[in-house]
Amino acid sequence: MYTYIKKWKAWILLWSSCLAFIACQTDDDTYVSVTEVDFTLPENFPESTYDFDKNPITKNGFALGKKLFFDPILSKDGSVSCNNCHQQSRAFADLPLHPLSIGVNDSLGDRNAPALFNLAFRKEFFFDGGVTHLDFVPINAIESEVEMASSMKVSVERLEKHDEYPELFKKAFGTDSVTSPRILLAFSQFLNAMISDQSRFDQYQRGDTEVLSKQELDGKAAFDQKCASCHSGILFTDQTFRNNGISDTFSDPGRALISESAEDLGKFMVPSLRNIEVTAPYMHNASFNSLEEVLEHYATGVKYSETLDPEFQKNPSKPGIDLSPQEQKDIISFLKSLTDDVFLTNPKFRNNP
């Protein structure tokens, strides 16, 4: 995927104007938000970065985006849908047996597929931040040679000829005209509804002081001291790009691919730790299969390079984080309290054709 993203940087502004035009075309029946799919800002969450005034979530728009998400029609050979790499039980990350994304013709992707939730609060997307607006995210999967290997043009043509889709577009947007911007707006309505805020930790934050065990609370204390500088706030990410010492050589340049700056070599987006229990393997290149391996890496395995994040250079003689074996166990216990079983099993996100 990452070799493809740069194609879109030059003309995203043009697409933005098209999307804004389409989003303003409303009618009384189409743009009536429905409670079960509407966007509600969770308590203690920041304001969304997504502009819902331009693309509000509606019952029909959500339904269209959901159908597109599960439909392999958008791939070159009709074999791969978004759901292939984004499974609800894994917080819409990929299955562990696919450490790197697998596309049409069993093509192997470059990176581990990220989880999908709380996207309305993201500033940038993908491990290198190569896309800065949610509406453009699906383009990369559709047109990547190692994912769906198709094109927006072909997608429009297929959906126009389909028995059901023109009517679904009419219900969602007031016209049966299938266009690329409308496809992307529908996707965003479905993706923006993916809110994860019902973990045991969230219950604790809302006043249930008995819901976390002593070990989990000990883990939270250790986490707040040693991990929260990167995985900060209620989203458990500061949305920055950092080199966390997985390697000292970089076949994947990470953020530098986008910024074209040597200072960003080997830096990747700090991921949210919500639902981290179910999203193994970990890191952009699926380096670690368990949380135990991740914590051990930070304690003993961080590799020095010129762009290594300063957080891992506080001890000049030993890069990493000072974590005792007990602290590692406690932190893992706390991280498991971030699992949102309500989100992982919510029937409104299931494929029910």
| H and E order | HHHHHHHHHEHEHHH
Structural class by SSE content: mainly alpha
Mean pLDDT: 91
Which parts are unreliable, with pLDDT below 50 for 5 consecutive residues or more? Answer: 1-35
Number of DSSP-assigned strands: 2
Radius of gyration: 21 Å
> Into which percentage range does the β-strand content fall?
under 5%
| Helix content bin | 25-40%
Order of adjacent strands in the largest pleated sheet: 1-2
Major sheet: 2 strands, antiparallel
Total helices: the number is 13
Sum up the overall morphology in one term. globular
* N/C terminus separation: 29 Å
Give short descriptive properties of this protein.
353 residues, two-stranded antiparallel sheet, globular, single chain, disordered N terminus, mainly alpha
Walk me through the structure.
This protein has 353 residues and is mostly helical. The protein has 13 helices and 2 strands; from the N terminus they run H-H-H-H-H-H-H-H-H-E-H-E-H-H-H. Strands 1-2 form a two-stranded antiparallel ribbon. Helix 1 crosses helix 7.
